Design the sequence.
């Protein structure tokens, strides 16, 4: 049955990568194999959420259809007013990290320990910066939904900050090894978050940021233009249409190496036993022939070059072998630039004869006896000649 669930960034990205993988994940709900680096990212995100939450001062929201305008007073009355930061001490932060730690997906105890110590170091450095330069969040780990011109979308946003000019900054943390500014510029994830925040908050989105945690570097960009958002809307619309029409074709590629569903995927179906030995032989033979073909092509090119050098030295064009004669043929191609030819024709009052300036038109002019011989000579000189030599074989008997 087709899904009408709202599209998240990862759902959209997965469908673009491979619709069948999307089906395995979002319709069949098959679990993925846990991976250490994903677990690590989740743990760090959850600790940061706890660390930043006390700093939150909410911002006015747009009312949902049928809902009264929500104000900051409503929020104050809910008893969730912010505590005065800093809310956690360094020791409490480390204790929180230890409690949050998960061991899923690491390939060895050594790998787990490496990640664990990386996380400890990263959080302590982040904490240091936080104490000296506290953030101004209006929300952390917030789940937002929106109807984007007919496409339901949703997402969990790591952080929404208030900017110094009173607008909003969307922040997404990244625990990856590397992160470049270009990634922030081109991130569809940030674009989707911009739309979600703009649809849910009263104040404008002024900045989009991917925050690289390992280097404590915020990669900031301006909000997307309406044209960029329109293009993304079209792409998401195509994905939503594909899901609605249950188009789940596999799309194999390099990404298959990271896919946990190869055993269910028709692209990776194994050859059944009665045929596998015979087909294995065929594949091996194909591979050998391919290698021979490449070797022969190289050999052929080298031999033709050697014959050409000999023909040049001896000033001959026919070289007999024992069964056939190798004949050197020549192919010429003249190239003319309109910029070089046009002034000559203009000066001779023949500008209209050049037409579109195609090589064939210019060649016709060079053969045209009504064009003065001197002009034809100068036109010919303005071109450049490309000569290509090639060899043909003629039967010795036929040649004789
Ligand atoms: S193995 Fe490749 S083609 Fe098959 S479902 Fe996974 S990603 Fe798609």
Sequence:
């Amino acid at each position: 049955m087709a899904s009408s669930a709202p599209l998240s960034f990862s759902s959209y990205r997965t469908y673009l990568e491979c619709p069948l993988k999307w089906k395995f994940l979002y319709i069949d709900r098959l679990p993925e194999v846990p991976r250490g680096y994903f677990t690590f990212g989740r743990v760090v995100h959850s600790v940061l959420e706890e660390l930043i939450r006390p700093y939150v001062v909410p911002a006015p929201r747009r009312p949902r259809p049928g809902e009264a305008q929500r104000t900051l007073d409503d929020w104050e009355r809910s008893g969730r007013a912010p505590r005065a930061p800093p809310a956690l001490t360094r020791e409490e932060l480390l204790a929180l990290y230890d409690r949050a730690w998960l061991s899923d997906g690491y390939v060895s105890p050594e790998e787990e320990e490496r990640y664990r110590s990386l996380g400890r170091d990263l959080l302590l450095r982040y904490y240091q910066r936080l104490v000296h330069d506290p953030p101004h969040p209006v929300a952390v780990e917030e789940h937002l939904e929106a109807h984007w011109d007919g496409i339901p979308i949703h997402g969990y946003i790591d952080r929404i900050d208030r900017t110094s000019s009173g607008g909003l900054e969307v922040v997404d943390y990244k625990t990856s090894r590397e992160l470049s500014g270009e990634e922030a510029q081109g991130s569809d994830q940030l674009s989707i978050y911009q739309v979600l925040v703009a649809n849910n908050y009263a104040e404008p989105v002024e900045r989009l940021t991917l925050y690289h945690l390992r280097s404590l570097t915020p990669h900031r960009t301006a909000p997307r233009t309406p044209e960029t958002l329109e293009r993304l809307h079209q792409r998401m619309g195509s994905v939503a249409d594909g899901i609605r029409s249950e188009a789940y074709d596999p799309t194999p590629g390099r990404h298959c190496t990271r896919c946990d569903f190869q055993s269910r995927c028709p692209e990776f179906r194994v050859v059944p036993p009665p045929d596998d030995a015979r087909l294995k032989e065929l594949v091996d033979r194909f591979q050998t022939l391919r290698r021979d073909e490449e070797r022969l092509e190289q050999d052929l090119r080298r031999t033709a070059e050697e014959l050409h050098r000999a023909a040049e030295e001896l000033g001959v064009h026919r070289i007999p072998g024992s069964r056939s004669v190798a004949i050197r043929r020549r192919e010429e191609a003249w190239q003319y630039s309109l910029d070089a030819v046009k002034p000559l024709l203009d000066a001779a009052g023949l500008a209209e004869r050049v037409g579109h300036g195609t090589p064939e038109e210019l060649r016709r002019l060079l053969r045209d006896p009504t064009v003065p011989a001197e002009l034809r000579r100068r036109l010919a000189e303005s071109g450049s000649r490309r000569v290509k030599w090639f060899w043909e074989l003629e039967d010795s008997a036929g040649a004789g």
Q: What stands out?
A: The pocket of iron/sulfur cluster is lined by residues 18, 20-21, 250-252, 255-256, 259, 261-262, 265, 267-268 (CB under 6 Å).
